[in-house]
Design goal:
single chain, alpha/beta, eight-stranded mixed β-sheet, 44% helix
Length: 345
């Protein structure tokens, strides 16, 4: 009898203890309703502005299973331009800086370049003269500096260049000149099960060795301009050679064409900064639910201010359509707390 009473007493004590723990737990939850995830700020390098809220609202709608705009993860495709959208592009595209450095490195094997344009302009560091040769001269430099090597050799050349080369004005490695707010946007979308793609006019073999790790985007999701190639078995050592011929230009209409060819789905989020991206955004807009975003370069102090009259990243027709159709426009000067990652405290 005594043992039974002790057992009942111990059981009552345990019940009282567990009730006390439960009460304390409920009290704690009442005092601190937000969990850790909710306390983490979304897009922390953005000011509390319209563009940020439009992005968050869209992502919230399409990822909420109870929303009429809900999209399954397989539908969540986001495409981003690279130059001027994810990293800087002034005073010329970073790939042109690479081509210039590559031409200089190859010059000892080509003494004829001393008097042959546009190569002589590169060797004389005469940028105005080089640019005066227009698109044809720049393409010639790209073809010469990006070909007659294997894809593996070219990848190593790009990696070595990126590890040491610096921007002539900002004196930073080119990989440092990515936009911190856009890195946060990529991460935010990836965390919400969006499949993020780069769709750029830049060379795909130039971008992949540099930006894949920076953006957390695998090489197969990086789409760009391509040169023709030639495969050979090479006596048991198979290789692919890069040829000095353009295969496909991933710019303007080429962007939606490549998106359809390679991805096979329209993006529901499309982000660019220039008229070269307009066709990609128009392609995304041909559906009921989408978010188009333009990065507008308005910060002449921390970066560069340019749009309609710029020789690089011209934003004219795209800006008109964005304003008329109420697409999201990022005002870099007012919307972003910082521009580059190294500006973070």
């Amino acid at each position: 009898m005594y043992s039974a009473l002790c057992y009942l007493y111990n059981m009552k004590s345990q019940i009282i203890l567990w009730n006390l723990i439960l009460i304390l737990g409920i009290s704690s939850c009442t005092e601190h309703p937000q969990n850790v995830e909710q306390q983490i700020e979304i897009l922390p390098s953005w000011n509390d502005v319209k563009s940020k809220q439009e992005i968050i609202d869209f992502v919230t709608r399409v990822t909420d299973v109870n929303s009429v705009d809900y999209m399954a993860p397989a539908q969540r495709i986001a495409t981003f331009d690279n130059d001027g959208t994810l990293w800087a592009e002034q005073p010329v595209y970073f790939q042109l800086f690479f081509a210039i450095d590559r031409i200089k490195a190859m010059a000892n094997e080509h003494p004829e370049w001393d008097t042959l344009m546009p190569y002589s302009a590169v060797l004389q560091n005469d940028m105005p003269k080089l640019l005066s040769y227009g698109e044809k001269g720049l393409i010639q430099l790209i073809l010469t500096s990006h070909s007659n090597v294997t894809t593996k050799e070219f990848e190593e050349i790009v990696k070595q260049w990126a590890a040491s080369a610096e921007h002539p004005q900002l004196h930073r490695k080119y990989s440092d000149l990515v936009y911190q707010p856009m890195l946060e946007l990529l991460q935010y979308l990836q965390d919400n099960e969006f499949k993020t793609y780069i769709v750029s006019g830049g060379g795909v073999d130039f971008m992949r060795p540099i930006v894949s790790d920076i953006y957390n985007i695998p090489p197969e999701q990086i789409i760009g301009t391509t040169l023709k190639t030639a495969y050979s078995y090479n006596n048991g050592h198979p290789q692919i050679m890069k040829l000095p011929e353009v295969h496909f230009v991933d710019d303007k209409a080429g962007k939606p064409e490549n998106i359809q060819r390679i991805i096979g789905r329209r993006p529901v989020i499309s982000v660019g900064n220039s008229d070269g991206d307009l066709a990609m955004l128009q392609w995304a807009s041909g559906q009921e639910t989408f978010l188009n975003v333009y990065v507008h370069h308005t910060d002449g102090e921390r970066e560069w201010a340019y749009d309609r009259d710029s020789h690089i990243g011209k934003l004219d027709k795209g800006l008109d359509q964005a304003e008329a159709e109420k697409w999201t426009i990022i005002d870099m000067k007012n919307d972003w707390k910082v521009i580059y990652p190294f500006e973070l405290k």
